[in-house]
Every structure is written in C-alpha cells, then in structure tokens.
Amino acid sequence: MGKKSILILVDGMRRDALEACGHPFVQEILKTGAVRLAARCVMPSVTLPCHISLFHSVPPQRHGTLTNDYTQQVRPVRSLPEQLHLLEKSTAMFYSWEQLRDIALPGNMDYSLFMNLHRHEHSDVCLTDAALSYIDAEKPDFVFLYLGQTDETGHGKGWMGEEYLQTVYTAWDCIERVARKTQGEYDLFITADHGGHERCHGTEMPEDMNIPLFVRTVDSLPVKPRLQREGEPEGKQQASIMDIAPTIATVMGIPLPRDWEGESLV
Ligand SMILES: [Zn+2]
Questions:
Q1: What is the pLDDT, as a whole number, of residue 2?
Q2: E-only strand ranges, 142-226
C-alpha cells in the first residue's frame, strides 16, 4: 500500500491565533510527532493566488492568478492533484469556497464535496464529518480539507477578535478529530493560505504573510534543520507555501513536476 496524505487548510488562520485561541491540541499535536514550522505565503496574500501557488508550487507571477478570479495559465504547470491523478493515486477534496475548483483541471479529482459557507453556518464541522466518513470508507491516497469560516469571520468581525478566535478554536476541534482518527495511517499537513489584520488581508505585512505549518509524517521523517521552527528567533530560512506540494509528493514517493519551484521540507 502506498503512502497517503491529508492537507488541512484553514483560510486566514494567523500564526499567532493558535496560541491566542487557547486550543489544547495546538500543543498536544507536537507530542504526536508533528513539527511546527514558521511559514510564509506569497504576494498577493489573497486566497486564490495563494492556493494556486500552494498546489502548483510556483509564485503568482508564474501561474498568473493575481486575484480571486482564476486566470488560465499561459504555460500550464501541473498541479499536485493533476500529478497524483497521472500516477493513479486517488484524490478527494472537501471545500466551502467554490473558486477552489480551479486547483486542478477537470477530470483530476476523484471525489469532491462543495458546501457553500455562506449558506451553511457550520460548514467547517460538516465538511470534517464528511471527510472523515469518506476516508473511513474509501481510504483515498490524498485528501484536501478546506475550512473557510475563519476568513469569513475575520472579514466580518475583525482578525484576532473574539469571534475570529472562536472560529480558529472550532477549526482546531476539526483538526484534532482528523489528526487522532488518521494517526499512523496518513501523513498530515496543516496550514493556512494567508493571515489577516483588521478586516482584510492582501498586503506584505507579517500579519498577512505569516502562516502556520505543521508536518506530521507516519515515519517521523526529519524536517530539514535549516528551516525555522515556530518560536525560534529569525535567521533561519522560513518555509514557503510553495514547498507544501513538493513535500507531499516527496512523502508520497511520487516524482516532482519539473516546473515546480518549491522544495521538499523533509
Ligand atoms: Zn479573505
């Protein structure tokens, strides 16, 4: 049986929101073999450009999507789901923001569940329930779980406010359920697409650019020592959102498309 991975992305989850929300699993997951890195997204720190960079491992200047409207690529780079599909790995995604359908060209995702977060008050929890049932039944090789309520609350009520931190806490309830249920079976990656400040994001400010990144592999593969862990003084290299796809491909034992610009973290 090949190696399997789950990527959980919490939209607009700031690095410093993890301590501020007070969820105990933020610390507990480190005792289960996870490494917590200090990572950065790409400019513009906006949802679709950052997701396209994450899944295609190239900066926005290369893939061409600079806003939340998808731009067809002039010189297409293969995305992680496309590469997985080509190598006959099964893929599934669970998401609540419809623009994310463009992380892969049609025909590359074996299962996808979209639930509009504006119409479903508890979309994060519902998508987590659905993802866990699907994982249990089908054991797909790769799962992308997108939780969108944090960003929505940031825009509506302000980043780092009480309501925002509550949605981060709920997202960590979801993360804890997935992490506990799939331990020993799936490699796990937890991150965000960008941060936020006041009621927006998109700038080069650290509040917008700094993102958390947790890597937990079944085999406890060592993360490269040159990379800055969360809480370490600056000076070491920070991981990039573009490094996530190469890392997942590496731990799953599949080759990296030549155009990818990120590097594996393990
Ligand atoms: Zn946003």
A1: 59
A2: 142-147, 187-191, 210-216
Whole-structure pTM value: 0.98
Residues 6+ apart with CB under 8 A from 12: 47, 150, 151, 154, 159, 192, 193, 194, 195, 196, 201
Q: Give residue 3 CA to ligand 1 midpoint distance, Å.
A: 33
pLDDT in tens, 210-233: 999 999 999 999 999 999 999 898
Distance of CA 5 from the midpoint of ligand 1 (Å): 26
pLDDT reading at 65 higher than 60: yes
Q: How far is the CA of 205 from the centre of ligand 1 (A)?
A: 15
Interval between CA 137 and ligand 1 midpoint (Å): 33
When pLDDT is averaged across residues 140-169 and rounded to a whole number, the result is 98
Residue 222 Cα to ligand 1 middle (Å): 33
Mapped onto helix, strand or coil, the DSSP state of residue 264 is coil
Q: Which domains does the chain have, with CATH numbers?
A: 5-251 (3.40.720.10)
Q: Where are the beta strands (DSSP E) in the chain?
A: 5-10, 35-40, 91-95, 111-114, 142-147, 187-191, 210-216, 239-240
Q: Ligand 1 centroid to 45 CA: how many Å?
A: 9
197 Cα–ligand 1 center, Å: 10
Closest CA to 249 of 101, 75, 87, 76: 87
